[in-house]
Design goal:
The structure is a homodimer of 226-residue chains. Chain A is of the alpha/beta class. In chain A, 34% of the residues lie in helices and 23% in strands. In chain A, strands 6-5-4-8-7-9 form a six-stranded parallel beta sheet.
Chain lengths: 226, 226
C-alpha cells in the first residue's frame, strides 16, 4: 500500500494496478483506486487467489501496480556539488539493496548505481524494501565502462568500503565521491579494488567479522552527509 | 555454518548438532563435526528431507546446533563506563533484530535488552541474522520494571529515537545511555515515551518518512561510540 502511494506521488508512469477484491473497501486502497481512476489508469479487480499468484509475497496487502522503470543513466545526472553516488558491487540480497536505496534517498545521496552481479534494483522485493525510495531517488544500473567514463568526466573519487581500509574520518572527503559497497559474503570485486582511490573502514570490535552491508552503507553515508 | 562456528568458539553450552548427511564431507562442516565429537557432543546425521523439516530456512547449509540460551539479566551486567544498552521496544522483524544485535556487538555496546512485544531474540531467524553476535554479546529480554530498576541503580539516561526528536549531536552524550528503538511501523510505545529523558533524531530528507530501524540503530550506535 505504502509503495503504491509513493508511486502515485512520483513522476513514474503507471500502466495499471491490480486489486484483491475483498480489500477494495480498505480506506487507503479505496483512495488509491480513486486516484488511479482519475488518471484513467486501468484497475483490475481479482480474487484473493489470483492476487496471491501475482503478488510474489507471503502476506500481500491487496494492491499492486505496474509502472515503467525510468530510463536513466549516470550521464543524465545533473552536475552538482557535493556529488555522492552509492555504488553497489554485487550486493545480492534484495532486502539489503532496498534498504540501501531507502537510506540513500533519506541521506540526500545523488544516485545509486548498481554494477553487474548486483540484484536488479527494480525487482519487486527490492522495491518493497525501498519503501518508495525508487520513486524519488535515481536508481541506475550500468557497466564498469559507464562508471569509468562518469568518473573521468566528473572527477569522481572512488572510495571503496573494506575492513582493511583506513578508518573513516582519517581522510578529508572530497566534494565528489562514488562509495562502493561489495558483496555480502565476498566483499569488493577485483574491478572495484583496481579502481579505488581510497579504501575506507568502520572500526569495529575484533569479535565481529563485519557489519551488515546496509548498516555499513548507512553509517558511511551519514558520516559523509554531515 | 558460520553461526555454528561462532557458537563453538563461545561459552554457550551446546547440547547436540544435526548434520544433513550429504553435506558431512564439506570441509567446514567436517571440522565442526570433529570439534563437536571432541567435546562429546551428540551429532546426529540425518537425510536431506529430515534436515529440511528441522531447519526452518529455505536454503539450509547442512548443519544446525542446539544450544542453551544463557540465563542473564540486566542486573548481571558489570558496572562499567561508558555503558550503552540498546533497547528494542517491539521491534518485530527477525532480520532487523538480528542485524541490530550484530551491529551492537560490532560497536562495543554493553548489551541489548528486548522489551515485551519484541521478537524473541533467540528465535532461529534472529540468531542467523545475528551472524554469531548472540554468542559474544549479552542478548537479554525483560520487563519495563526491570529496566526501571536498572535505570535507577545505574543512573542510566534513557534516549529514545524519534523523528520529532532533537538532532543527534545537539545534546552531549552522558556516560550511561539506554537507547530505545521502537517498532518498524508504529515507532515508540507510550511506555517508552513516558520514560525518555531525551528524544533523538537523525536528520533525513523530507521525501523519506524514516530510515530502516536497523540502519538507524547503526548510525546512532556508531555516533555514540566515537
Amino acid at each position: 500500500v505504502r509503495s503504491v502511494e509513493e508511486l502515485l506521488s512520483s513522476q513514474v508512469e503507471v500502466r495499471a494496478a491490480v486489486v484483491s477484491s475483498p480489500r477494495d473497501e480498505d480506506p487507503r486502497i479505496a483512495t488509491l483506486v480513486r486516484r488511479l481512476s482519475e488518471r484513467d489508469t486501468l484497475v483490475q479487480h481479482v480474487t484473493v487467489e489470483e492476487f496471491a499468484s501475482a503478488a510474489e509475497t507471503d502476506s500481500p496487502q491487496g494492491i499492486l501496480a505496474i509502472g515503467v522503470v525510468p530510463e536513466a543513466t549516470l550521464a543524465d545526472l545533473p552536475v552538482s556539488d557535493p556529488l555522492r553516488i552509492l555504488v553497489l558491487d554485487a550486493v545480492q540480497d534484495p532486502g539489503n539493496a532496498g534498504t540501501m536505496l531507502r537510506t540513500a534517498a533519506a541521506l540526500s545521496v545523488t544516485a545509486t548505481f548498481s554494477l553487474p552481479g548486483t540484484v536488479d534494483l527494480w525487482n519487486a522485493k527490492v522495491v518493497r524494501s525501498g519503501m518508495g525510495a525508487h520513486f524519488h531517488h535515481p536508481c541506475l544500473a550500468g557497466t564498469w565502462d559507464e562508471l569509468d567514463a562518469f568518473r573521468r568526466e566528473r572527477s569522481l573519487a572512488i572510495w571503496a568500503a573494506d575492513a582493511a581500509g583506513e578508518p573513516l574520518g582519517a581522510t578529508t572527503a572530497p566534494d565528489r565521491i562514488g562509495l562502493i559497497l561489495g558483496n555480502e559474503g565476498s566483499g569488493l570485486s577485483s574491478q572495484s579494488r583496481e579502481r579505488a582511490d581510497c579504501f575506507v573502514a568502520l572500526p569495529i570490535a575484533t569479535t565481529v567479522e563485519s557489519l551488515n552491508v546496509a548498516v555499513a552503507a548507512g553509517i558511511f553515508l551519514y558520516e559523509l552527509h554531515r
